[in-house]
Amino acid sequence: KNEVEQSPQNLTAQEGEFITINCSYSVGISALHWLQQHPGGGIVSLFMLSSGKKKHGRLIATINIQEKHSSLHITASHPRDSAVYICAVETSGSRLTFGEGTQLTVNP
Amino acid sequence: SAVISQKPSRDICQRGTSLTIQCQVDSQVTMMFWYRQQPGQSLTLIATANQGSEATYESGFVIDKFPISRPNLTFSTLTVSNMSPEDSSIYLCSVRDRGEKLFFGSGTQLSVL
Predict the structure, then answer these.
(1) pLDDT by residue (tens digit) across B45-64?
(2) Neighbours of A69 (CB within 10 A)
(3) Do B102 and A45 make contact, defined as CB atoms within 8 angstroms?
(4) What is the distance between the alpha carbons of residues A72 and A105, in angstroms, rounded to a whole number?
(5) Cβ contact (<8 Å) for B43 and A94?
(6) Nearest CA-CA distance, residue B22 and chain A, Å
(7) How confident is the prediction for chain A on average, in pLDDT?
(8) Is A10's Cβ below 8 Å from some Cβ in B?
(9) Distance from the CA of B21 to the CA of which of A4, B31, B48, B92 falls in 20 to 30 A?
(10) How far apart are CA B2 and CA B13, in angstroms?
(11) Residue B69 per-residue DSSP state
(12) Which residues of chain A make contact with B37, given a CB cutoff of 8 A?
């Protein structure tokens, strides 16, 4: 079992839909990161969380430390949101373990 | 924040040759990280590049195959040596700012024939 599990692996939505991507982990962490990877490989950091909830524009990230679970929500999804979303957990020594990513496609 | 310029963005190489990937950061950073992302898989840390000392390699990665240079606090190179088709991957460099936020280069898509 991977230390970081994301679901779903693939997600197709219609423009305007509310989207949720989930991340579960099995180890104690000091922080959790949500990343966005576009075709071609470049990665952008969306959020760094250690507790609670953060919001940036149409993106919301939540984390429940007790349940070892985090969610990334996208409101009013748009085709430009199409990307791979990656969850990464940070453990002792600032070591990062990455999930395998969720491929999101938003159709117009 | 940090802006990372990574090049080349992609390359197609012949088996047995070597490719050097460069990352330039617009600010001084203590550590730079090199990752590999094989097709359909998550990122795997290759090594941590420290200025003024040898890089620290993760299990499964060795200096002879992936030599790293870190001549100053804004620049690093990763060389993929004696390439084989199994080395076909995306290679990314990464840094963290003082707030621990992650920044990545744009990636190098390597195909080995």
Answers:
(1) 999 998 888 899 999 999 99
(2) 15
(3) yes
(4) 15
(5) no
(6) 15
(7) 93
(8) no
(9) A4
(10) 30
(11) E
(12) 41
